[in-house]
Amino acid sequence: MSLSSLPSLAPSPMPPSLESPPPGPMAGPCSLLPQSNFIGLNIETMHLFLSDPDAFTCTLRIFHPKLVQRSYGKEKRFFNPPTLIYIHGNGWHRNDARVREILSRYHVSMQSPNYIPNSPTLPNLPVRWQASVGIGDGTSQMQLPVDARNFVVARSLFISNADKRKQFRITVDFTSFNGPSTLYPVQPLGTFNSSEIRVVSKPPKKQSTRSAESAMVCLKSGMIVAIYNRIRAQSVSTRYLYTQGTAFVGSNDVWSAYYIFAVDKVQNSPLSNSFVMDEGFIHYGDIVRLVDALTGVSSPNMIIRRIEKDEIVLVNSADPVAQLQKVAFQLCDSVNVYWSVSMAQVVQKEATIMSEIAHKVEDSFSWTLTQADVKDYKFFEGNGPSSTPVTPIPIVENLTLDGTSEENAVVEVMGTDLGKRLTVWFGLVASETIEANRSFIQCRVPPVGYVNAHHPINADCEMYGTSICVPLTLVRDDGVIYPTKAQFLYSCNTAGPLGNVVTTDLAAQRRSEFSKHMLELNRTRFRVQDQVRSEVSNVLRKRAYEGM
């Protein structure tokens, strides 16, 4: 993940539905944009979006810990690591450009003879985004701007003893404003929630996996974690493990989420670049591998060691590693070399050998791990920015196909924040909704002939020999587009089932398999052509020889 600002977009022609709406009466005290109209989405807009989703999609990403400590009395135990909100995607630039155009038209209208004096005035200032971050209790909202790196860092969140909840979610209200103050709200984007967060009274000590309560705080292979180095509980000296390009660095504010895998000691060499994951809980003395959950950048294989007082304990233990405990990472190819943080760099450093079973610990060797999560929200306002929030963002958890023919085939979408306002699109074709509620949508599968008829302009539609693959997209009745990771694979065979629902990963696998198949066919064809040319050449040479 790069901290550089997103590239600016050159202006490009827009279909009618993507043009900025004309200025009109204000939608109310909350927004300077017109209210959304429920005209749906036209096929040209969907075609433009599906041709290059990355050019239009807005992504809001929330990084947060899954386990936090409760504060008691006047003490404030701020969540560690801090909650991060990161916005990326070229859609944000398009949104800002279209909002600026609307505001520019409004400024022009203020100068016209028909301007109504009672209408709200608006200073000609830059538009900026701001997040209001809280813990879902209706109070203690932090007002934080988006910085130049497109991050919001919520450092001061905590949960007090007066709040008796054992689980909660962080809430993020995202709004754009005209100018540096909050006097002129422009666009209320909506409220975004984190995953569920668990509250504990104090860091767990030695744990066993026998009870369900204890097992919940133990590290498991394949879990997503945040990792940080903190000296004497001082927030100012905390360094968070962060992936910058292909390097691991120690950042003082932002952090990356990592999968922690236990490496199978039987099937792997400790020094191997590839590895086979071992399942279950992670114990002291296990070989582990850290893999960035977003970029795939991987650490070398390392041995996770217990830290007790001033010593790194080398004796392997049957105790599982619990969250919020201090650990050290020993390089597998060394006797006493550890991962260490030096200012903003993660380096390898030798520890002092105290005995055969202990090394001397230094502050820079000490790491704390806690379960973390990354929540992604993706959307695009197909009909332009409006005063209507894009939230709640629908989350698709499962899709199933029922029926095998065009007459009875239906797709059932299961998830959260669905409903009757959403339509499932198969490529450029909007399906018919049979039934819908907040957790379920049932729709008819459009006939393959109808979908294929749009193929000449359907840039997102891909042909794989005897099948056609189209993306499944959710569209709200006011034109807001919510991409999913699912696709529908139509079979073009005259016999057999109509098709199947596949995920993006499976679709990529199908593309790879088809490419390999076509490559092998081409190789076979070339071999046959070479063989035919060789035989023809031999025949011609033989005839020429016989004619001599």
At CATH level 3, the topology of the largest domain is: Immunoglobulin-like
- Structural class by sheet pairing and helices: alpha+beta
CATH superfamily of the largest domain: LAG1, DNA binding domain
Please report which band the strand proportion falls in: under 5%, 5-15%, 15-25%, 25-35%, 35-45% or over 45%: 35-45%
Main-sheet strand order equals: 11-14-16-17-19-24
Low-confidence stretches: 1-30, 509-519
The CATH class of the largest domain is Mainly Beta
Percent helix range: 10-25%
Assign the CATH architecture of the largest domain: Sandwich
| Count of helix runs | 5
Main pleated-sheet profile: 6 strands, antiparallel, barrel
Count of domains: 3
Q: What is the overall silhouette?
A: globular
Explain this structure to me?
- 15% of the residues lie in helices and 36% in strands.
- The protein is of the alpha+beta class and 548 residues long.
- It has three domains: 184 residues, Sandwich (Immunoglobulin-like), CATH 2.60.40.1450; 161 residues, Trefoil (Acidic Fibroblast Growth Factor, subunit A); 116 residues, Immunoglobulins (Immunoglobulin-like, Sandwich).
- It has a six-stranded antiparallel beta barrel with strand order 11-14-16-17-19-24. A four-stranded antiparallel beta sheet has the order 5-4-8-9.
- The longest helix has 44 residues.
- The N terminus is likely disordered.
- It is found in: Nucleus.
State the main characteristics.
Trefoil (Acidic Fibroblast Growth Factor, subunit A); Immunoglobulin-like; DNA-binding transcription activator activity, RNA polymerase II-specific; Ig-like_fold; 4-stranded antiparallel sheet; alpha+beta; 3 domains; 34 strands; transcription; single chain; 548 residues; 5 helices; RNA polymerase II cis-regulatory region sequence-specific DNA binding; 6-stranded antiparallel beta barrel
